[in-house]
Amino acid sequence: MKGIEMYTRIQEMKKNGFSQNKTAKTLKFHRKTVKKYWNMTADDYNDYLLSVKKTSQLEQYEKAIISWLIKCPSISSA
Fold this sequence. Notes:
The chain is mainly α and 78 residues long. It is built from five helices and no strands.
């Protein structure tokens, strides 16, 4: 299940008067997951998504690789 769907389902259960524990049991989520998303606003959730953005392991080498390709255009980018 995608994060936004999980967040939305938890918020729907909260709006319908379910407790955190009942929400966790009903949705079969860990109670800590429900607790994490329970009081988040939509803006908080978007900020959270931006803060946990995963980066590629190669991203740290991007500038070096680009500079090598510029300096030595005969090198294959593969």
